[in-house]
Fold these 4 entries.
Entry 1:
Amino acid sequence: MCGIVGYTGVQNGAPILLEGLKKLEYRGYDSAGIAVIQDRTIHIQKVTGRIANLCEKTQDGLLTPGCTGIGHTRWATHGAPTDTNAHPHASNDGRFAVVHNGIIENYVELRRELTEKGYHFESETDTEVIVHLVEHYYHGDFQKAVMKTANRLQGSYALGIICADEPGRVFVVREASPLILGVGIGENFFASDVTAMVAYTRNVIYLEDGEFAELTANAIRVFDCAGREIPKQINRITWDIQAAEKGGYDHFMLKEIMEQPRAAKATITPRIQSGQIQLDDLDLDFGNVRRILITACGSAYYAGCAGKYTIEKLCRIPVQMELASELRYADPLVDEHTLLIVLSQSGETADTIAAMKECRRRGAKVLAIVNVVGSTIAKLADYVLYTWAGPEIAVATTKGYTTQLLVLYLFALYTAKKLNTIEETEYCRLVSCLKALPKQMQQVLDMNPAIPRLAKKYHQAYSMFFIGRNTDYAVALEGALKMKEISYIHAESYAAGELKHGTIALIHEMQPVIALCCNESVTEKTMSNIIEVKTRGAEVLAVAHRENQKIVSLADDMIYVPKVDPLLCACVEIIPLQMLAYHVAKENGCDIDKPMNLAKSVTVE
Ligand code: M6R
């Protein structure tokens, strides 16, 4: 929920920290700070608000010279977003500074204990206990103090710690929060995410939970929790640095919407050879699977909702959906015959990780569909299918969601073939439909120049309804979430047939209805619901393919999509809804890439 970064080397550290923080700002952006060591003194600068404020305050880092430092961008959990609560936090003697991503669950007890020992607390954060513990345990051995401190902490934490007495040395610790080390030449780095370091190095080390490391300019040493040095593999980042830049678009979200056809191709193409789906990483005994449970949060959960229809239809296996935040405490009925599919763009979502661990403990095999290579979820799973969407920066997911859908489609077809639940001709037909999707995703981007105009018409709505049936309903869930999270307009997603069971009471002239009508198996039915809401005065914006003349004549406004098989249409149908949400948010002057109160990666419960 926060982003941390650190540097030690020969360059002036602050500008590098600030650049890194800008790349991590998607993780949290209510306050930020850096700490740099100069002349054996730690200099800390903190601000409320965005990294831009910190750059201004430090004159882009020039006011804080020094070759070793740490930085933080915050998404507040404990304590309001103020300068005082911003990280880095310093020890009472000023010798140590710490940045932290995660939550210290036993901070109340630790705070009481430290207060009794005479330590003085400046902030309301859980983090501050860490730096006082380091001071408490320090008797000339920095490493020992860090280890003793880590042993006292419960919860999740990625930490960066510096000591004024040892200017070229940084310690980092990882427990259930992302932390990656960057291996440079004569300089080394750490960050919550590689995007913060990739401008300087493509060689990285992934730390595991319970490990800690010492960084100096010329070396990185990694230790297990008992302090034994352990060998680590250096991994090479292969994606293009521009993939993490805006590339001429006004917003990352727009860039990422536009990238979807390319991302789709990268997800599908290598996995279809001579008309056959190859999922080499999925060495699963399908005969043993009696049911599938899909879990995730937010959009990833909604991708699962759409994928469920395709899997059940093709594989004839019952698929149950559970929100990860519910599943983890649900005492779930899971055993060794359950395949748990976990969906996550970041691979670091705390609730998803917890649900996954719980189900594994009860015997389930876990297939993770993730975007970030080396992420916690990828590492914990029995099988991993990457979505290959490239880095996703905007808080609102777009290409992350559509590539998750595509992997679910691949999985459904692959499994159906394994289980013999699909005829060969149908299999071949659907595989060629799947191969056509990247092109159709491009078509949908090209064929809707009217969306900005529609956004001008609908942007003042106080609330909207998104309705549909079957896969159209699953897309309604995601469409409404996109509208809510970036435009702050209330949006309700509803199974079209349910309206008359209560919520139709809310329909009136000021309540636009977005009707999703792409799944041909149910469009006739949805059309009767369109008539019901129109009778009550609502304006209807329908999403359908051009040939469906009945809908064209019923709806007030149309968004067109190409005709796609109902089992695969969700990943095309969502794209105009992403665009609509984007343009409505733009009309309303919202901060599209960093919506209020949100963060990209929800690494706390
Ligand atoms: O990284 P994850 O896919 O696990 O994230 C899950 C949700 O937090 C995420 O999809 C969230 O709902 C998005 N901001 C929606 O756009």
Entry 2:
Amino acid sequence: MDSIIVTGNGPLKGQIPIAGAKNACLTLMPATLLSDEPLTLTNAPRLSDIRTMTALLGSLGAEVSSLQDGKVLAMSSHDLNNHTADYDIVRKMRASILVLGPMLARDGQAIVSLPGGCAIGARPVDLHLRALEALGAQMDLRDGYVHAKAPGGLKGGIIEFPFVSVGATENALMAATLAKGTTVIKRAAREPEIVDLAQCLRKMGAQIEGEGTDTITIQGVDRLHGATHPVVTDRIELGTYMLAPAICGGEVELLGGRRDLIAAFCDKLDEAGVEVSETENGLSVRRRDDHIKAVDVTTEPFPGFPTDLQAQMMALMCTADGVSVLEEKIFENRFMHAPELMRMGAQIDVHGGTAKVTGVSKLKGAPVMATDLRASVSLILAGLAAEGETKVSRVYHLDRGYEHVVGKLKGVGALIERIPGQ
Ligand code: EPZ
């Protein structure tokens, strides 16, 4: 397993290009199952999760051609010859559950392995199943698989989520596009990835209103046609790299960055003493002065502070003046980066879903271990600001959500290397 070695090297300067959003691409790709005509995605990120979704779609009989070094995904599911998403693929990536709604809507049948939990929580899929039942699907859970049927096709209905779920909203939205009649999704997720999916589905002929609000209305249609759609900018990659100049000084321009995708995060950075300004190519970020102020953070569904930036923000707060309290309200176990940051001298008190961070003047480089995607990048950020060398092991987690992280950070002056196989 590869490791990454990063050595604190002072202020950063230059530009970092931001890729297409992993979490948009992972729901846009299954949308190809809704039509027998080609769906092409541009601005796709080059990530291992995308390769996993490619393999899953291939196992169902869809064709996914990766063009232009992976930035273009030309997909066609003209001949689906298998309706079973196997455990050995699904267990690697929870987003595999997103083939359930489209397959059911297209062919009235789907067998999808339950994804199982992951490092950050149990992450059940009950809301996905309830939503599809509201559209007339019959669900049987057997041998770790969901056996879903909709013999006469799906019918429009009312779906009222008890709390916000991004994935369940995506499954419901995709399924409803081909359901007979009208579907209303209440307490829908409002994330930019949902808006991006709705815009792509609309290009394919879907009739959708209200995406980006908590109520989405869909008029089912008989069939969807092909389309070409650019994947929206990755707001989590964007926020992650904005924290690099925040934690170790300098000024970095994030190419393609859009403030509207992470307004709550930008407001928190502003409170902490980090200046975010819009440029004609994206966003430019620098500290207002040499100090970062401790600020409190509570993660919430969009438009609140994103849970996927909580670990990275904690790294910044470890070096801030004062005490900050971070509340993780979305997942039950998303502080695994804390013990690793404490190996670097951070002072963090975790109680349940709350972490109290007392800033220290300097972190010390140390060997640390990545546990999940966002935790691993928070350790890289901490290493940028630490005295000496930090060796992050198990960086395969990083490859799931960050393309060329070493190249992008090297490009702005970071001392960072990837060591194979250690
Ligand atoms: C998506 O996961 C993202 N993944 C996650 O990003 C992100 O953290 C999350 O949304 C929240 O924004 C992708 O888009 C591929 P949820 P998802 O359903 O859809 C519970 C990353 O780092 N829940 O909004 O799985 C669930 O356990 C990843 O890129 C149920 O109880 O998240 C969680 O506590 C990590 N039953 C809460 O809801 C369900 O049926 C929110 O989960 C579904 C979810």
Entry 3:
Amino acid sequence: MSDELDELYQEVILDHCKKPRNFRLLEGATRLGEGYNPLCGDNYKVYVKMDGEVVADASFQGSGCCISKASASLMTDAVKGRTKTEVKALFALVHDMITTGRVAAQGVGKLAVFAGVHKFPARVKCAILAWHALVAAVDGAETPVSTE
Ligand code: ZN
């Protein structure tokens, strides 16, 4: 990855950290997932409104570091309109990318900005936290989710 690309990715992450999208309570939410990362203090609730098998809407609330917040922001944008199966497939791609730095040829879209996180192992949990909460929510789990 070139330095210029790294810089662009950092700008996107900073933008979503300062102005998180979907950072609100979700009216009519049908599912809730919680994620807590004790290593960093990231603590989020992810709200999902399911319409059958489709994620009709998603939002999040909570607090944490810049990477965790930007990840939740981009994630809630990315999963809207996707089916439960598609969300899980996307999670698998994102998880692989964040832990190895490999960017799938297709499918991750803007989420590619987190590919560089694999160079900072301590931040991997930050980037993946909201995803664990989301998948738990989509699966209908009601217990809090920890990445530990
Ligand atoms: Zn964090």
Entry 4:
Amino acid sequence: MTIHEDAVTNPSNGPHLNDLVDARIEDAGRRGLLRGGLGLSAMGFIGGGTGLLAGCGSDDSPAPTAVAGTTQTAPVALTRPTALGFTPVAKSVADSVSVTAGYTATPIFKLGDPMTASTAAYRNDGNDPAASFATRAGDHHDGMHFFPLDANGQRSTTASDRGLLVINHEAITPAFLHPAGQTISGTGNAAVRTSAEEVLREFYVHGVSVVEVRRATNGTWSYVQNSSFNRRIHTLTDVVLAGPAGRTATMATKYSPDGSRTRGTLNNCGNGYTPWGTYLTAEENWAGYFRRIAAVDDPKRNAKEKAQNARYGVAGTGRELWATVTPDTGDDLYGRWNAESRASTPAGDYRFAPNTYGWIVEIDPYAPSSQVKKRTALGRFAHEGAWPAKAVVGKPVVFYMGCDSRNEYIYKFVSARNWDAADANGGIAAGDKYMDDGKLYVARFNADGTGTWIELKFGTGTLTAANTTYAFSDQADVLINARIAADAVGATKMDRPEWGAVDPVTGAVYMTLTNSNAANRTLASTDAANPRHYNDVKGTSTNQFGNPNGHIVRWVEPNGDTSATTFNWDIFLFGARATANAANVNLSGLTAENDFSSPDGLWFSNKGVCWIQTDDGAYTDVTNCMLLAALPGTVGDGSTKTITNTDSTGATKQVTTRVGAAPGTAKLRRFLVGPKDCEITGVAETPDGQTLFINIQHPGEDTPISAIANPAAFTSHWPDGGLARPRSATVAITKNGGGVVGL
Ligand code: FEO
Ligand code: CA
Ligand code: CA
Ligand code: CA
């Protein structure tokens, strides 16, 4: 489990669903409906034959409209395969990639790999020059997408032997990046980084890589070191702040006094892609990088600014202490990470620099010199990614998004303009057209299996200047402070939304809720959509209460209308040990062949296979993180269940939830297990489905810094083996002899 991802800054106390659940059970009891599935069959939850579920794959729904220029959507109604075509792989704690029999998994792009002809080979001893990282693979590979290239180097929708991988580099494992970890002097608020070289190296290894990859005639994949498409985007890259919050007063910094630009992108976690051929990268745990000592700075701030910093967690020394390097450069290379009010005006310092992070960022990989843009219409939070609904000509473009922190929310964006297939190769200009103007919604999951998308629109409901908790001033204020707006409208607090994915067969949207703990998913706050509070015994630790194994929620909007403001939901899968209590914990009937914990990455192949990746710290006494494949059914294909939760005091609470049909090992099985201390994240495929790319992030990250001089004590040496320092890397997976991966 990656560190730094657990900050909880949501103090609002309105939107837990337990009260609704209790009210509904009481109400249903009065009406004698408890034995009748809470009346849900009448609402289309069970059976799937009513209008609420029409358009989600039923035989009589119209065939989806063909979409030109996209590779992720089905050209015609797609039938999901009926069986997975591989043998489940066993759980493992070995320091190796364990892939199912008959497949080959090859690391092809590793931390430090040179991305120009003149960049030296990676030494991997901590001494590679900092400046060289401007043209090397970054660290902590995360979200990723494959953009096909034809033989002429032009954008293709079908090429499967050549393309551009765009890869996020979320964070760093400091122990292995420098000679002996970070050089720090002093402690607490007085701690400072004393090596500018090390900090510069860290500036470059965060961000995004665009790298060309090719498959040789013998089937072997490799990256192209001297490709003219290769590009690094990092914390020093100039970025435009596009959309309604750009060029506004609270985006002003010394770098860009008019608030039109910022420098860099950071903590790029999950991702997305657009129907017009661009990549979306998500800024997740950016808040922790800024230095802002609250006791020093709060007295200089007004009430709204204090509320903003509190809600987004901008407080502390900065996780990597970047602001502490002295002397600074003329362009504030280090001081721009200090978010304290220090000058007479915001344009004289970086007090509002945090407002320029926390966005969905658009990159055109096919145009190496194109401007990078942050799309502010999609709201500012701890973005995990942005996943498009199937683009339909004449309909708005829709993206689903999650805010990855405990008790945070699920959002969607609906464009103002309708999709025109002529924009299929539109690049960043198409992004200007579709992503700078639209409606931002946040999700409320009702206890009855329905849900509501609530628009975050200034001037409506509680989003006005009259709000006594937080006086909203305009739509830019709502977007920059989307978490505060979502609190105000009563959205549903979820168990850490990670990746989403849209099922090409049914149009249903799946989203992983990776886990929560006892403090954040208390017994009292369990609700229909986040229903579990239990103890998962880990090794000798007998106190792992909350929802430590996570679950995967899914929903579908009525009649295939992705811009609708209502939806129906259920829970596709519950993470659990196969040995856990079947009535209250292992609700999806997981077995030794498919049990998992902490789902994170999620991807639907264009054949309809659902790939699930884990980023886990709960089940790691038994297994390293893994990749599984599933063949899901439809929203509402299971049943309602009432479970009994138990907390550490022995107190109990019953919650009624809706559980998707148990897939069994025929339709859910483990495909791959990663090396020590890694998470499996990032997933992309070639259009022919014959190559799957995944990322292995932070192998060996639990190695104590005290072991850095003793390579034999590193917890991992993957992928280079021997006594090498471990490296995050992209892995290409193919079926021996060819064929679609997983089937
Ligand atoms: Fe960076 Fe949400 O995982
Ligand atoms: Ca991570
Ligand atoms: Ca993640
Ligand atoms: Ca995670």
